[in-house]
Amino acid sequence: MREFTVPPVVTVPDPANLTDPVWDNAERAGQEPQFARRVEGGGWRDVSCAEFRADVVALARGFVAAGIEPGTRIGLMSGTRYEWTVVDYAAWACGAVTVPIYETSSSEQAEWILSDSAAVACVVETADHAALVEGIRGGLPGLKHLWRIDTQDSPTHRRLPPTLDELVAAGSAVDPAEIEVRRRGVDADDAATIIYTSGTTGRPKGCVLTHRNLYSNAANAIPTLGDILHPGATTLLFLPLAHAFARLIQNAAIQARVRMGHSADVKHLVADLQEFQPTFVLAVPRMLEKVYNSAMQRAHAGGKGAIFDRARAVAIAYSEALDRSGRPGLVLRLQHRLFDRLVYRKLRTAFGGRCRAAIAGGAPLGEWLAHFFRGAGITVYEGFGLTETSPAATVNMAGATRIGTVGRPLPGVTVRVDDSGEVLVSGDLVFQGYWNNAEATAEAFDPDGWLRTGDLGQLDGDGFLRITGRKKEIIVTAAGTNLAPAVLEDRLRAHPLVSQCAVVGDRRPFIAALVTIDEQAVHGWLTAKGRPTEASVAELRNDPDLVAEVQGAVDEANRAVSHAEAIKAFRILPHDFTEARGELTPTLKVKRSVVQKEYADEIEAIYSHR
Questions:
Q1: Could you write out the DSSP letters of every residue in 56-68?
Q2: What's the rounded Cα separation, in Å, for the pair 292 and 286?
Q3: pLDDT of the residue at 154
Q4: Residue 100 parent element (H or E)
Q5: Which domain range does residue 372 map to?
Q6: How far, in Å, CA of 134 to CA of 409, rounded?
Q7: Separation CA 222–CA 9 (nearest Å)
Q8: Are residues 419 and 482 in the same domain?
């Protein structure tokens, strides 16, 4: 058993709550920018600290006018946008509890979350979201109010719920002093939000996070990541705010007065990044993999593949040398300078040109990918945590980065690896329990009160944590071989044609894999081979050239494991995994139970033909 503790830098006092930084910023730096909002027709308009507080107060007055009481739950179903943040803080300002719902959620998922949380109100973004909630309202007798963010009329002329603008107008009759009374009545240990874990198995459980949980996590992350979280820094948030990871950055950006914009449309993300020019971004590993693969595909399609491949090797070698006592030598520095002009600068331009750091989490990040981006001028600070830890428990940071690990504990956090190899966490960031689920709450903690993360890891003498797999995802073959599938899956996804993969083999005679193909990448692959590009992946899945290409990726992945752990067979699936079909979480992690059920015939075909 190993354990590592970092003392807290910030301790949240009992009377404090998450709205305090908003009020403090408005008083101390009222005219400084807190947000930037997209202006119709192009460009961004700054929202000052004072304006943001005014928007929060105005909406909180509307909630009070509608009868929202302290402790009641307000559902929030929307994409990432400025109004999401305003609703979040307005709910807290009047003592309510925010219950996020992913904008892509099905009616069944939304009904479960609103019903289980006993939400009395819900804010939705669009007319389609409103229709979804109206369609399940018969099963939600406690849902009294429904409001929408968008102001456009319904194209089908159906009756729409009132807008937030109308709610704000109704709140003008409420004395602003009432909001101060409500706000001061919220203590650190009061519930701030119930986040339903998307999970890779089973029905979502509601994690109850208090103001202390979220406040302490953000406040202790700021000094740890002081090189990126500071006044004058900028970030463009595009991951879903319904996820705890993006929520942490929201809260930390407000506390640190980082200028923050929102981008909810993936189609416009590259343009938004180039226009907004953030100094850092929040990303999940799959997004970074796609950025790398897209750059490589463009280079090869343009006849510059050899240059890119050499630049990749130099970037990785340069980054690895940074961790050695000798640092990069003269020849490597000269090569790095050359490829910075030819390749790396163009890659940074895709992030807006000013971005020098990314915070990554939500899934494992390949070491090669972290080295590549650092060598190209964008340091990826990988961290680790769960919704139940608010969510960041550990993180790499400037001056204390060890690629291949998820960093050291944040201030105020203790990490322990028990004798079974499971990672345990303790500190003010640990949640209070699952909503209305005492049995699941009891299972989440060990007898000494430590949170069981379900992850397996190794903790070195300097406190750096390395995640080696998920306890529930360990595959045990019929021959007794134990395998954490992440190491193979990470290396497989490094191939530009591979979009997703799921390693299988539990209680089977050997390890195998289900592989999906990137539909955009396959078009360029066919073009490069001089073949017609009309064929779909479903038509190509047994194509000898494609099978050989994937076999090469499998062979490369197998180099990371022993012969007994290697992938012996694979199947190319006819289509990619999607969140809409329930195969992926919102952070693009594969839901293994769903995939194994949906593709049971494909798995059986693998083993019946061997």
A1: HHHHHHHHHHTT-
A2: 10
A3: 60
A4: strand 97-101
A5: 281-471
A6: 44
A7: 10
A8: no
Q: What is the phi/psi pair of residue 126, to 5°? A: -120, 170
Q: Which of 52, 3, 30 is nearest to 457 (CA)?
A: 3
Q: 610 pLDDT band (50/70/90 cuts)? A: low
How far apart are the C-alpha atoms of 76 and 103, rounded to whole Å?
9
Count other C-beta atoms under 10 Å from residue 260's C-beta.
25
> For position 322, which CATH number holds?
3.40.50.12780
pLDDT in tens, 25-54: 999 999 999 999 998 878 899 999 999 999
Phi-psi region of 341 (alpha: psi -120 to 50; beta: other; left: phi over 0): alpha
Buried b (16+ CB within 10 A) or exposed e, 362-377: bbbbbbbbbbbbbbbb
Residue among 69, 73, 64 at smallest CA distance from 119: 73
The pLDDT tens digits for 430-467 are 999 999 999 999 999 999 999 999 999 999 999 999 99
Q: Two tokens at 390?
A: 């608010």
* pLDDT (0 to 100) of residue 200: 47
Average pLDDT along the chain: 93
- Cα–Cα distance, 208 to 192 (Å, whole number): 8
Last residue of a domain, one of 445, 471, 497: 471
Tokens of 604: 């059986």
Looking at residue 261, the DSSP 8-state letter turns out to be: E
Per DSSP bridges, beta strands 392-395 and 408-409 are antiparallel
pLDDT tens digits, 512-529:
999 999 988 898 899 888
Assess whether pLDDT exceeds 80 at residue 542: yes
Contact 362, 342 (CB under 8 A): no
Answer yes or no: do 390 and 502 share one domain. Answer: no
Picking from 515, 512, 541, the residue whose alpha carbon sits closest to that of residue 606 is 512
Return the CATH number at 501: 3.30.300.30
Q: Are 577 and 540 within one domain?
A: yes
CA distance 541 to 529: 16
Contact status, residue 73 vs residue 96, Cβ threshold 8 Å: yes
The SS3 assignment for 250 reads helix
Q: Which residue has the tokens 């070698």?
A: 317
